[in-house]
Design goal:
This protein has three domains: 114 residues, Cathepsin D, subunit A, domain 1 (Beta Barrel); 145 residues, Acid Proteases (Cathepsin D, subunit A, domain 1, Beta Barrel); 145 residues, no CATH class. Helices cover 15% and strands 41% of the residues. The chain has a ten-stranded mixed beta sheet with strand order 1-9-8-3-4-11-5-10-7-6, with no helix packed on it. Strand 26 and strand 27 form a beta hairpin. The longest helix has 17 residues. The radius of gyration is 26 Å and the shape is globular.
Length: 479
C-alpha cells in the first residue's frame, strides 16, 4: 500500500512537467521577429520561464552568455572561462546553468552559460547553440530565420536561383579563437585600407583601429573638423567637437559590392589580436544576408537596379524591373498601432521621402519616412503612431492608433529638411509643424549633429580640382 501511494505521488508531481512545452536542442526551423526599432539590430524577444529577455546572436562567441538579471538565484559552478575580446582585453566569467530559455515559442534544452553582470535580462547566443545552424537575416521584414547549415556548393547553387544581385563571399576563421573573419576594403577620399574584420551579428555600429588607418592616410573626424574654416565666433556643437570616429566613403566586402557613407567608431592603437575592426549591422544590414559560419559563407542578396539618368527601376527575383519594386513596405501590428518598415533598394544621391496612406482613415497630418543621401538598401522601422507623437500631435496620433493597414502613397526625390538623417515624420496639415522620430547616429550623436558632421566631412574629403591655367594674352602690336 505504501509503495502504491509513493508511486501515485511521483506521478502527480511529474504531471505539470509533462504538460509543459516540449524542449528542443536546436533553433533550426524557427523564424523570429526582431525587436522593433528605427535602426537595424539583431535582437529578438524571448524569455527565461516567465522573465522577458532580450536575445542576441554572436557568431564570434563559442559559449552562450546570460546576465544575472535573468536568473533569480543563479547556481554558479567552480569553472571559470576566459573570453578574449577581438578588439583587445579579456574577461573571466563564472559558469551557470541556463534553464527555461525560450526563443520565438521554442524552449531550448538546459545548457551551460557564462554569467555576466550586465543590465537587464539579456542572453547572447553563442556557437554552442548554433551548431548545424545558419542564419538568414531579412532587414526589410525585420526577421531572422534559423536554417540548416549547407555545403558551400549548395549555397552557390541557391544563389543562382535567387535572381537579382547575389554575392557569395568567403568567411575564414581566426586560428586561435574561431572568430569569423571577412576581408574588407575601406575608402576615404584618396586613401584606402584593406584588412581582416570580425563579422559581428550583435553590434549595431562598426569599429576600426585608428593606427593602421592613419598610416594609410585616413583622417579622423576630430582631425578634419579642426581644418574647418569657421567664421569668427562660431563654434561647433559640443557633440560634434567631442566625436571621434572615421567617416568612410565606401566599405567594400568584395570589389564593387558594399556600403557607402558609413561612420566607424574608433579604437585607439593597432589590433592586438590581428583583427582590423568589427563589421556590424550598419555595413551588412543593407542586404538580405545569409551567414553560415560552418560552411564559411556570407551571402548578400538585393534587387537588381537598372538606372537611366534620374530614373531607377528594380527587379526582385525573376520579375521584370519596375520603379515600384525599388520600394518595400512591411507592416505588423505592434503596441498602439502598426510597426512599419520601409526599405529603398535604389540609390538616393539627393535623399528622398516616402509618404504613407492609411485606408479608411483621415488623419490631420501627413505621415512618411525621410532619408538623407546615401546608398541602396537603406531601411528603417517605426511604430506608427510613435510615442512622442501623442505629445506633439495628439489628435493625429489618436487617429493613427486605429490604423489596420498602411500603403505607399508617393515618393519624392528630396528629403524633409526638418528631419535630418533617416526618420519617420508627421506634418500637421493645418500648421505645417513637423514631428520626427529618427535613427540614432553613430555613438549616440543627435541626427542634426550627424547631418552637419557628414556634410562638413564630405566637403573636406572632396578632391580639389587643379587650378585652371590662364590663357596667355596676345602680344600688344604697338610695343
Amino acid at each position: 500500500m505504501r509503495t502504491l501511494l509513493l508511486g501515485t505521488l511521483l506521478l502527480l508531481v511529474g504531471c505539470p512537467r509533462a504538460s509543459g512545452p516540449p524542449v528542443f536542442d536546436t533553433l533550426v526551423g524557427v523564424e523570429a521577429p526582431l525587436i522593433p526599432g528605427p535602426g537595424l539590430r539583431l535582437a529578438m524577444p524571448g524569455q527565461i520561464f516567465e522573465t522577458p529577455a532580450e536575445i542576441l546572436i554572436d557568431v564570434g562567441a563559442t559559449m552562450t552568455l546570460v546576465t544575472k538579471a535573468c536568473i533569480e538565484s543563479p547556481m554558479v559552478s567552480s569553472t571559470r572561462v576566459k573570453v578574449v575580446d577581438p578588439m583587445g582585453g579579456e574577461t573571466t566569467y563564472p559558469v551557470t546553468r541556463l534553464v527555461g530559455l525560450t526563443v520565438s515559442g521554442r524552449r531550448l534544452t538546459p545548457m551551460e552559460a557564462l554569467l555576466s553582470d550586465g543590465q537587464g535580462c539579456v542572453v547572447v547566443l553563442g556557437t554552442d547553440v548554433m551548431i548545424g545552424t545558419a542564419l538568414q537575416i531579412d532587414p526589410a521584414k525585420r526577421v531572422v530565420r534559423f536554417v540548416p547549415t549547407s555545403p558551400r556548393a549548395e549555397w552557390i547553387a541557391s544563389a543562382e536561383r535567387l535572381g537579382g544581385e547575389v554575392q557569395v563571399l568567403e568567411l575564414t576563421k581566426d586560428p586561435l579563437h574561431d572568430w569569423p573573419l571577412l576581408a574588407a576594403r575601406l575608402t576615404q577620399g584618396q586613401a584606402t585600407y584593406t584588412g581582416p574584420f570580425l563579422l559581428s551579428t550583435h553590434e549595431r555600429s562598426s569599429r576600426v583601429f585608428d593606427a593602421p588607418l592613419a598610416s594609410a592616410g585616413f583622417s579622423s573626424t576630430g582631425d578634419l573638423l579642426q581644418k574647418l574654416d569657421l567664421p569668427k565666433g562660431v563654434q561647433l556643437p559640443m557633440d560634434l567637437s567631442a566625436f571621434q570616429g572615421i567617416a568612410m566613403d565606401k566599405v567594400e566586402l568584395t570589389p564593387g559590392v558594399g556600403t557607402q557613407s558609413v561612420t566607424f567608431a574608433v579604437a585607439s592603437g593597432a589590433a592586438p589580436n590581428g583583427v582590423a575592426g568589427v563589421l556590424a549591422a550598419d555595413t551588412w544590414g543593407r542586404f538580405e544576408v545569409t551567414i553560415d559560419v560552418t560552411a564559411g559563407v556570407l551571402m548578400l542578396h538585393r534587387p537588381r537596379v537598372l538606372s537611366a539618368g534620374d530614373r531607377h527601376r528594380c527587379a526582385r527575383g525573376q520579375e521584370a524591373p519596375t520603379e515600384d519594386a525599388c520600394f518595400q513596405l512591411e507592416q505588423v501590428r505592434a503596441g498602439r498601432g502598426v510597426a512599419v518598415t520601409a526599405t529603398i533598394w535604389r540609390p538616393l544621391p539627393e535623399g528622398g521621402r516616402l509618404y504613407l496612406d492609411f485606408p479608411g482613415l483621415s488623419p490631420a497630418c501627413r505621415i512618411g519616412f525621410t532619408f538623407d543621401s546615401g546608398d541602396r538598401g537603406r531601411n528603417t522601422q517605426h511604430e506608427v503612431p510613435w510615442s512622442r507623437l501623442f505629445e506633439t500631435m495628439k489628435p493625429c496620433a489618436e487617429t493613427l492608433g486605429a490604423a489596420k493597414e498602411v500603403s505607399l502613397a508617393l515618393f519624392e526625390d528630396t528629403p524633409l529638411r526638418e528631419c535630418p538623417g533617416v526618420c519617420a515624420f508627421a506634418q500637421d496639415l493645418r500648421t505645417g509643424r513637423v514631428s520626427c522620430e529618427c535613427q540614432p547616429g553613430p555613438l549616440g550623436l543627435s541626427p542634426e549633429a550627424e547631418k552637419l558632421l557628414l556634410e562638413k566631412l564630405r566637403t573636406l574629403l572632396k578632391p580639389k580640382s587643379p587650378e585652371s591655367q590662364q590663357e596667355p594674352t596676345d602680344p600688344d602690336p604697338s610695343k
